[in-house]
Amino acid sequence: MTAGTPEHTVEKNYGETITSSELLTIHSARALAGRRVVFAGHGLPTLATALAQRTVAPEIEIVYESGVTGARPPDLPRTISDSVLVPGAASVIPMTHLFNYVLQGQRIDVGFLGAAQVDRYGSLNSTLIGSDWEHPDSRLPGSGGAIEAMAGAAEIFLVMRRHTPRTFVETLDFVTSPSPHRAAQSEVGTMPAGAGVTHVITDLGIMTRFAQDEELTLSAVHPGVDPAEVVSQTGWDLQVAADLETTQAPTPEELTILRESLDPTRIYLR
Q: By CB neighbour count within 10 A (0-12 exposed, 13-18 middle, 19+ buried), where does 162 fall?
């Protein structure tokens, strides 16, 4: 498995063709076991929460930035504002109410997000790549609800399609969503209510952190991945857990639900 390449398969490690997107989604869904209310971001977080709802967390309540709460869509939504989210939902409320009373009201157990860059303490960049604000190398979609999720959710899960030194960086090009560690160092603003980023799922493994001043630590690698490769693909001196685990292979049931029921046209799986 090589980081930084286009969508790849990992059949050499699992005995069948499994893409990195499938691997990421399944491990992201598994991480939601035992969680109740999840704020789902666009892309793989949406797919992962849908899979969790059909596997490890059937009672999960999915909340979307568009104002839909308790979503149980009959089909996979293509965006976080897709009308398919409305049938069967517990409620649809104005976005101002969602942000003011649900996110700021600390009613979210997990904010599930993606980002362009993350640093060792879990601060996120989803705004731009490059040092020049006026002429960046890439201008990205921006925060959306990510900064509110970081501020109000009990914890943040992050899914990253590529684990490279350009995505896991010593210094962010722009701080879109500051971690509790960074917020504590600032003289302005307020502290996030929760723990910040506690789980990061990548194409190489899983990183975790839980305390304000704790760095992300490599806690698990996928089968066939050398921990030294993960360290070399990280832009800081990544620490490896003493009890490093190897993740469990996707099950036939998980793959069938993902491929044939949730995303047969590969909206998010690519």
A: middle
The domains of the chain are located at: 9-69+79-262
CA-closest candidate to residue 200, choices 230, 242, 237, 170: 230
CATH of domain 9-69+79-262: 3.40.1080.10
Q: Can 214 be counted among the known catalytic residues? A: no
Q: What's this model's pTM, rounded to 2 decimal places?
A: 0.92
- Give the Cα-Cα-Cα angle 182, 185, 191 (nearest 5 degrees): 65
- Nearest one of 92, 91, 46, 50 to 74, comparing CA atoms: 50
Let me know: does 10 contact 2? Beta carbons within 8 Å. Answer: no
Selecting among 65, 155, 214, 254, the annotated active-site residue is 65
pLDDT in tens, 48-81: 999 999 999 999 999 999 999 999 999 999 999 9
CA distance 95 to 238: 38
